[in-house]
Amino acid sequence: MSEDHGTDVLLDVLCPMHVRIGPAGDIRRVGPTLRKLRPDELVGQRFLDVFALNRPRAITSIYQLMQRSGAKLHLQFRRAPSTGLKGVIVPLPPGEGAIVDLSFGFSVLEAVRDYALTSADFAATDLTIELLYLVEAKTAAMDASHKLNLRLQGAMIAAEEQAYTDMLTGLKNRRAMDFVMQQLIAEGSRFSLMQLDLDFFKEINDSMGHAAGDHVLRHMARIMTEDSRDSDCVARVGGDEFVLIFKRLVDRARLEELADRLIARIRQPIAYQGRVCQVSVSIGMVVTPKAGRPDAVTLLHQADVALYSAKHAGRGTHRFYRPGMTYGPDATLLPPACRSRQD
């Protein structure tokens, strides 16, 4: 084994995010983690063409950079994702260039999310992964009054995005919906809530199979996403049940227009492997009161009651919750666990 090869193996193990650059600033070799971040994009390029140097700001050339041995560097990729990096440069003997050792710093959570990194992508002595596990466990167990500071909280939400996502449709899941509602209630924002339930969905699963049912659910998710704003929450909370939360949208006329549009679009036939799937949707709606602090459980209950009323009215329609509205047509209020909804 040559000396250079042995050095490369050693650097790969101890510094998996190192960059070896030549005297003119050309990238000659990168560690395995950097290869994962930017496959086929680094070797042969100029270091300062790949990385934007944010600090020290006075450095504008590779020559100046090589004169700053041991200086702390703040960089980021020029091409998206523009992951932020920290580093240190160590010059090699004259004429051989330098080694730049990089790390993620505060951007590690974004990097784990963007590049699907695992513990194998970090040096054996790097405690980053262990620290991430500890922070995640602590955050999940803490009460709202013991939240992390805003910077860490935002990073943790990004790292936990998968835990808040319904894997079939790509929508938010029930956990994410609960979080959004609690946030809106805590900040005192008024909002409206729609609960949607597909009609005749069971027949699709029974007659055409669950793959067809999954196709229908993904189609429904696209429609709801297209007919909502980026600030709205679109969540799948059950098999064929969805919840839409509209921040600061409490105008009933606009909500009725939106419900009518959703019903009309969802009613359209859906092609699947040469066959046609046909469903409709029933919608229950509730708007937070002008005064007082709403309760999330109560709002969901009221939307569910309104949804049942829409089902009882013939399906494929919508209803607003109103005081006195109950589940049963005989005015008997039955809890959800005791009633069976006809799909």
From TrEMBL:
<protein>
    <submittedName>
        <fullName>Diguanylate cyclase domain-containing protein</fullName>
        <ecNumber>2.7.7.65</ecNumber>
    </submittedName>
</protein>
<dbReference type="GO" id="GO:0052621">
    <property type="term" value="F:diguanylate cyclase activity"/>
</dbReference>
<feature type="domain" description="GGDEF">
    <location>
        <begin position="189"/>
        <end position="323"/>
    </location>
</feature>
<keyword id="KW-0808">Transferase</keyword>
<dbReference type="InterPro" id="IPR042463">
    <property type="entry name" value="HNOB_dom_associated_sf"/>
</dbReference>
<keyword id="KW-0548">Nucleotidyltransferase</keyword>
<dbReference type="InterPro" id="IPR029787">
    <property type="entry name" value="Nucleotide_cyclase"/>
</dbReference>
<dbReference type="InterPro" id="IPR052163">
    <property type="entry name" value="DGC-Regulatory_Protein"/>
</dbReference>
<dbReference type="InterPro" id="IPR043128">
    <property type="entry name" value="Rev_trsase/Diguanyl_cyclase"/>
</dbReference>
<dbReference type="InterPro" id="IPR000160">
    <property type="entry name" value="GGDEF_dom"/>
</dbReference>
<dbReference type="Pfam" id="PF00990">
    <property type="entry name" value="GGDEF"/>
</dbReference>
